[in-house]
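Dear colleague,

Thank you for sharing your sequence with our group. We've completed the structure prediction you requested, and as agreed, I am returning the results in plain text so they can be pasted directly into your records. Please verify that the sequence below matches your submission; if there's any discrepancy, let me know and we will rerun it promptly.
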Amino acid sequence: MGNKICRKNEPFFCFLLSVAESSDIMPNIGIDDSLLKYSGLNSAAELDNSVKQTLMDMGRRSPDFLGSLGSDLAAFDAVPNAVGLGALVLSLVLEFTIRALDKQEKEDSTFDVVRRVFAEEKASGVRDSMEEYLKRLAMYLHQPTEMLEETNRLEKQLSEQLTCLKNSMLHDKKMSSRSMKHWTNGAAFHLQMLIHAARRKLQNTTKDEEKLKVHVASIITVLNRYQYDLQELLKLYKIYKNSTIKLFYKPSSYMMEVVAGYAWVIKDNELRKQTVVYCGEEMVGTSDAYIDYMFDHWSLIKQLNRYFDELKDNLQELITQNFEFNMQKVLPVSDNHSAL
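Please find the predicted structure tokens below.
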């Protein structure tokens, strides 16, 4: 690659990238929205707001619904460790409970996080470990000792699988957008597991400052490695996308109802998608130069880098934060006494 982008072409490439990002032709290698939502310092507030909104929506559609929940919500009166992955799993369990009782599907919910990330993948150790951990964490919401044991067991398993996945892309010529998405989500999930375990271990002690520093240093080591691995993977991914994305133009004056000019086509052979961008004048641009610009300005890559940077900046506070979820506090006011 190595093409230098002429400054006069930057507005043109900026326009092309903007259209591509808004037309569903860009590959999605980003971290799932549900995992993003519950990874930060405001995960407890996100959980409260999500549950409140779900209950309000159900109540509006079926006024008797909240009352019908009865004892099904009693188990959520006092749930410890409802931050980070604890908040994500609690939202998942609540959505599952409400779905089962309401008998209606809801698209793109927290409950579907694993399905969204791995789509139609037939075999994936990373997927299996993530799904198994979500199941185990849900089982042990009120059993912190068992939860910690499962976290320690499955984070080691996930770590090994992420190493295998990374090496398959870097050394075994198995690079793809799907594999990149699996790795980025798996790495983010693994770090959240480590934070969740450190949080629980500190709750078993007298919150010794030295022990906190040990946990922070340990997780920082893994985080630094993932940041390094991400950059190495992106270098190879850029080469891979240069082989699948093509940029070309053709005169558009022959098209009906189109002003004479040029129709630039961005085609991604991996995704089997393309989009057409109309330009009133002839511009100079190559696929290589467009890929260079894309990887320098792609919002999804910036978001990935920001995720790991912010995790590092907030790591100590993420480990020490705690929150006990109480269903009574999020029930609509008029139903506080009748729902349970």
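Summary note from our side: Residues 122 and 316 are 38 Å apart (CA to CA).

Kind regards,
the structure core
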